[in-house]
Specification:
globular; single chain; alpha/beta; 5-stranded mixed beta sheet; binds oxa(dethia)-CoA; Peroxisomal Thiolase, Chain A, domain 1; 331 residues
Length: 331
Amino acid sequence: MSRTEFIATGFHVPERVVTNDDLARMMDTSDEWIVQRSGIKTRHWVSEGETGVTLARQAALQALAKAGMKPGELDCIVYCTCTPDHFEPGNGVFLQRELGVRDIPALDVRNQCSGFIYGLSVADAWIKSGQYRRVLLVGAEVHSRGLDKTTRGRDTAVLFGDGAGAVILGPTDEDSRGILSTHLYADGRHAEKLWVDAPGLAHDPYISEELLAQGKHRAVMEGKEVFKYASVLMPQSVATALKANGLTPADITLLVPHQANLRIIEMVQKSVGLRDDQVYANIEKYGNTTAASIPIALHEALCEGRLKRGDVLVLTAFGSGFTWASAAVRW
Ligand code: UT7
């Protein structure tokens, strides 16, 4: 059976850069607090006319160009986001339309910060089974329009950013490389520890002035709880990935973790026992872009020459749900 390889990557973030000082003019916060607690210095926010799909389209076109492929050569689109442009249909079909292709399936994955690895796992299974050969996997988010940019929302508003990352996946017959494993997890007991309650059809009506006044359409997070579980479950998922493939921490060339908080990344690094050069972080520039953070970081790591053929790449993510996941790849 063939394995799945990464053929090309791409990314796109909006032009508008928002600094911590910009945020301090909107709410009671400071550059010092944000950098100290999260490591974030800037994030990108969309401007009028930009949406998750327009960001995803740019990232996808960049990945396609790098792969030397036309959109018409794709067999399938997997679109991971927790910030869709519309309630329905999902962003996958809008991206398909924007790319000018028809008839190929467009799957939407709603697994928040773990979305990209969940999507990767599905794409990997399809490719290995021979169902689809060329899969476009996208993680794209527009958080800025959903944030409460007042002091009430400061614990989340300072963390999240907008952006998109895309990868093209396909089969390789060389069994020495490609995706070695994916491991996916969820624990719904923690669903309300990071969630957006409304609009939602658990409410009747599903959106109302009252829900809006209560701020139910904003992301609400028990930050300390999320931090606590992420710091334990991300390293655990890395350990599982290593064990499944007979690898040790020393074998990891690069760990690309979901970029939620630099302090969490540092705890994962310490817990797994990795050197600085084995861990990639770019959260300083983009903040937390949930499903987009891993493909954006992977793209930048590749541009910096951090991975070469034969290297071991490990991905890990944790987020709302709780959901968490890992993947091991022989590059
Ligand atoms: O992808 C997964 C998504 N989320 C995460 O991974 C987030 C995980 N959690 C975290 O990263 C951290 O919990 C935060 C960065 C969100 C918060 O850090 P913390 O050290 O847990 O702070 P805290 O929530 O305990 O708040 C400490 C203080 C509070 O003030 P008092 O009660 O001590 O007076 C907050 O009101 O900091 C205050 N605070 C702020 N101050 C300035 C909260 N947000 C801000 C802010 N600026 N933006």
